[in-house]
Amino acid sequence: MIERKKLRKIYGITGALVLLVVPFFIMLMNDSHELESAQSYCPFKMLTGMPCPGCGITKSLVFLYKGDIMTSLHYHLFGPATFLFCIVAIIVLTAELITRREYFKNIIYSARVGYTLGAILGVYHFVRLIDFVSHTSMHEIIRQSIWG
Description:
Helix content: over 70%
Number of helices: 9
Number of domains: 1
Structural class: mainly alpha
Shape: globular
Radius of gyration: 18 Å
């Protein structure tokens, strides 16, 4: 039986790989114009027409893969940071599995780091919501949901 810590690291590597691979395949299967006008698959946005804190990460990664950093940042400011985080997580967790040592434990499992990142994402999302509501009509918000 695999010990708990090892299993969590394997899940972390798998999650990071999925997060990086899915946008890559979306990029290969869609052109930029089709992707920009496509309906969001975010359950929150489908129900409300409003973006959730993670809305745009996938499109941000797709445009990052295409080399269009400005469009990537337009869709989500943390798209490139998510890419870097996933790469680092895969490298560190793989190294930990191989060497059976833990690196960056005080940073990765720090509540302070988690709360700080959560607060930054919360502020960013709040600003995005204000911008979204001020530039989008109620008709357009409903059209972007499953109700429109």
